[in-house]
Every structure is written in structure tokens, then in C-alpha cells.
């Protein structure tokens, strides 16, 4: 499956925002039942989301439809699943996990709900927000051996983590960039995702009226090994989709790399523009061309 580039959050109790969902062009929407929905509005969201899903059955969807459920420590996860699973969401975002064991519990819940709803067993994916509690970052390496078949990828969050560790900010006052703790968990999440062979999804860019800052940040994230990103506003979607697809220059360079090896079929290493290329460069170039084809369908 080609990686999903943009995951756009939509508060699950907002009829108005849900009404805009089909036009956003996001690879995936995250219909939210968690923290963008006030406690007094959860029940309303548990009615709106399933009807939204049912009006867009699997196989007819413009964007994949994911749901962010409430975390296990709230006792609301099962209530959420009971409300939404008949609508056949493509995946669940699971916030505030302490590690792979939390994903395993929800995965077992999904086995039962899928059977009850007549959905193929294992067809609902899970994207845990894998850094939002203090213990969570210490488990990031454990996803690799956890055997979680539903695991789509890992993502991370800085806001809940800073609240969990009683920090008053998650930014470095000198640079305005992530403070060291958040850089560490972001990097460990990236490594943990690749160790597990799943996608690395970067966290949201909070300033939704800063398109150029978002673009630069997405380009940097892709260069580091992230395949997509969370969005909070429709205006962020196109920028994220563009930034996580190979650029024209990358595609042109990848073609030249592939051509250089094709012209020297017995060579394990060739020269291009005065630089040495070997097999990892060829594989990287083939990956770029495959992604370009998938996204420009
Ligand atoms: N999904 C769908 N539509 C959205 C949207 C979203 N995430 N965010 C904004 N819109 C709509 C607005 O309703 C508005 O519609 P209108 O033109 O008909 O009035 C339009 O896009 C422009 O919105 P704008 O005025 O620029 O923003 P806002 O002040 O209304 O909303 C936020 C700002 C941050 C509250 C809003 O973007 C939002 O709710 N984002 C998602 C937040 C969330 O789910 N967070 C959870 C994860 S951290
Ligand atoms: Mg949160």
C-alpha cells in the first residue's frame, strides 16, 4: 500500500466541518472523538461519525476515513468502538498509548467488532500516538518485535507529553524549535517505526496560517524518513500532499540514476555528475519513481 501523506483532523461533533470533508483532498481524514470534542459533545459525535461513515461505505471513499478514539485509561474506548465500527472505518488513531501492549488490547477489541460488523478480520489499521505519556517513549523500540499486524505506522505528539511531564513549554526558548526532549522522542519514534517496518507520520504544524513554514518543515521531515503528516486545517492538506510526494527535481534525478545503471548493467557502482553511486542509490531512485507513479495516479 502506498503511504498516506496527509491525515486531516476533523472534530467529530462539527457538522459544518464534516460537511467540508469530501472536498479537502486529504489522503485520510481523522474523525475525532477525543480532545477536540468536549465531554458534553461526545455523545453527539458518536452519532455523527457513524452516519458519516455509513454514507461513505468502504470502496467509495475519496479519502480514507480514520477515527481517533478516546484512550484506554478513560474507559471510553469500547463505547467509541461500539458506536463507530458498523461504519467500517479504515483505521483508528489511538492516543496516549503507553506502548505496544495498548495497541494489542485494542487490536483484540477490533477482532470482535469486525466479526460483529461483517468486516474482513484485520482490515482496520491502527496508528498509535506513541509518545504522549511519560512511559511511552521507552517502548518505541518494542513495536519491532510486537507482531502487531494492524499497525499502520507510528506518530507522535508534543502537547500531551509536555502536560504529562508537567512542562510549561515544549519549545527551546533560544531557537523556538522543539526542546531537546521532543527532538529525542521524535527521532526515537522515527527509528521505532522503521525498526517495525511501518510508516513514520510526523506531528501537526500548529500555525495553520504559515504555508511556507509548513512546506519547509514537511520537506525536512520527508528527507528524514517520515512519509506523511497530521493536518489540522484544510489549507494544510495540499502542501502536505505535495511535500511528501517526490518533487520534479527528485524524479528527474532518480531517472538519471536508473538510466546510468541501465547503461552499465554489470556495474555495481557508476559515476554521475562527478559522484559515486552504488546499489543503495539505485534502490533509493527506484523507490522515488515508484512513489511518484503512485501519487500522480
Ligand atoms: N476540517 C474541515 N473543515 C475545517 C477544518 C477542519 N479541520 N478547519 C477549518 N475548517 C473550515 C471552517 O469551518 C471554515 O469554514 P467556513 O469558511 O465555512 O466558515 C473554513 O474551513 C476556514 O476555517 P478558518 O476560519 O480558517 O479556521 P477556524 O478558525 O474556523 O478553525 C481550527 C480553526 C483550528 C479550530 C480548526 O481548523 C479545527 O477545528 N481544526 C481541527 C482541530 C482538531 O481536530 N484538533 C485535534 C487534533 S490536535
Ligand atoms: Mg492530544
Q: Which features characterize this protein?
A:
297 residues, alpha/beta, TIM Barrel, 2 domains, eight-stranded parallel β-sheet, two-stranded antiparallel sheet, 10 helices, 10 strands, binds coenzyme A, binds magnesium ion
In words, what does this structure look like?
It is built from 10 helices and 10 strands. It has 297 residues and is α/β, with parallel strands linked by helices. The chain folds into 2 domains: 6-243, TIM Barrel (Alpha-Beta Barrel), CATH 3.20.20; 248-294, no CATH class. Strands 5-4-3-2-1-8-7-6 form an 8-stranded parallel beta sheet. Strands 9-10 form a two-stranded antiparallel ribbon. The longest helix is centred in the middle third of the chain and has 18 residues, at 100-117. The two termini are 14 Å apart. 41% of the residues are buried. The model has no long low-confidence stretch (mean pLDDT 97). Magnesium ion binds at residues 35, 95, 157, 159-160.
Amino acid at each position: 500500500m502506498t503511504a498516506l501523506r496527509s491525515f486531516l483532523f476533523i472534530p467529530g461533533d462539527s457538522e459544518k466541518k464534516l460537511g467540508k470533508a469530501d472536498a479537502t483532498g486529504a489522503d485520510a481524514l481523522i474523525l475525532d472523538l477525543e480532545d477536540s470534542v468536549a465531554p458534553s459533545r461526545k455523545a453527539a459525535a458518536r452519532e455523527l461519525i457513524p452516519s458519516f461513515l455509513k454514507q461513505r461505505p468502504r470502496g467509495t471513499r475519496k479519502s480514507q476515513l480514520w477515527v481517533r478514539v478516546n484512550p484506554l485509561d478513560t474507559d471510553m474506548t469500547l463505547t467509541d468502538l461500539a458506536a463507530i465500527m458498523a461504519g467500517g472505518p479504515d483505521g483508528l488513531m489511538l492516543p496516549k498509548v503507553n506502548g505496544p501492549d495498548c495497541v494489542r488490547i485494542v487490536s483484540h477489541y477490533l477482532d470482535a467488532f469486525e466479526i460483529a460488523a461483517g468486516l474482513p478480520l484485520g482490515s482496520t489499521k491502527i496508528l498509535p500516538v506513541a509518545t504522549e505519556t511519560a512511559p511511552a517513549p521507552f517502548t518505541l523500540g518494542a513495536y519491532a518485535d510486537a507482531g502487531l499486524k494492524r499497525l499502520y505506522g507510528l506518530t507522535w505528539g508534543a502537547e500531551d507529553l509536555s502536560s504529562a511531564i508537567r512542562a510549561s513549554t515544549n519549545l527551546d526558548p533560544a531557537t523556538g524549535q522543539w526542546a531537546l526532549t521532543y527532538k529525542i522522542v521524535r527521532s526515537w519514534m522515527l527509528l521505532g517505526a522503521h525498526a517495525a517496518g511501518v510508516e513514520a507520520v510526523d506531528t501537526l504544524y500548529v500555525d495553520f496560517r504559515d504555508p511556507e513554514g509548513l512546506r519547509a518543515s514537511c520537506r525536512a521531515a520527508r528527507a528524514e524518513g517520515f512519509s506523511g503528516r497530521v493536518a489540522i486545517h484544510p489549507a494544510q492538506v495540499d502542501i502536505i500532499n505535495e511535500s511528501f510526494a517526490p518533487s520534479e527535481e527528485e524524479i528527474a534525478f532518480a531517472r538519471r540514476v536508473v538510466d546510468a545503471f541501465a547503461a552499465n548493467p554489470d556495474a555495481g557502482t557508476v559515476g554521475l555528475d562527478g559522484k559515486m553511486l552504488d546499489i543503495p542509490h539505485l534502490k533509493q531512485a527506484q523507490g522515488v519513481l515508484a512513489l511518484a507513479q503512485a501519487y500522480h495516479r
